[in-house]
Design a protein that fits this description.
mainly alpha; 2 domains
């Protein structure tokens, strides 16, 4: 029974230390619910409850939006794909405009011209 309590005590101490360090190293502007200055005393004064609350409510989320790293445009494949798509669209529009301009420049046939039709 003493071994169980010893193991539980060691785990509790590790959790307590880890929660204090995690709270202290968290970025101030990303902490949720309360300001960081309020979380640290809560975690220190109430070791188990404060640590559990910190991990459940106050700790910054490790999601794509919260932990997203800024990537230079030259290194961002999505940005480069968008550039290529825009370039292709501009080229397509230029070709279509040129074709329309060529169609406008062609002389129109008069109704008397021999186009293979006979109007009665």
């Amino acid at each position: 029974m003493i071994r169980v309590w010893l193991i539980v005590g060691v785990i509790a101490a590790l959790f307590y230390i880890y929660s204090i360090v995690d709270c202290a190293l968290a970025e101030r502007d990303r902490v949720r619910a309360l300001p960081k200055a309020a979380w640290l005393p809560i975690v220190i004064v109430f070791p188990m409850i404060g640590g559990a609350l910190w991990f459940a409510v106050g700790r910054p989320r490790r999601g794509r939006s919260a932990g997203a790293r800024t990537v230079a445009p030259d290194d961002d494949p999505e940005f480069l794909r968008d550039l290529q798509r825009d370039r292709e669209q501009r080229e397509r529009i230029r070709r279509i405009e040129q074709e329309l301009a060529d169609l406008d420049d062609t002389p129109k046939k008069k109704s008397g011209d021999s186009d293979g039709r006979r109007d009665a």
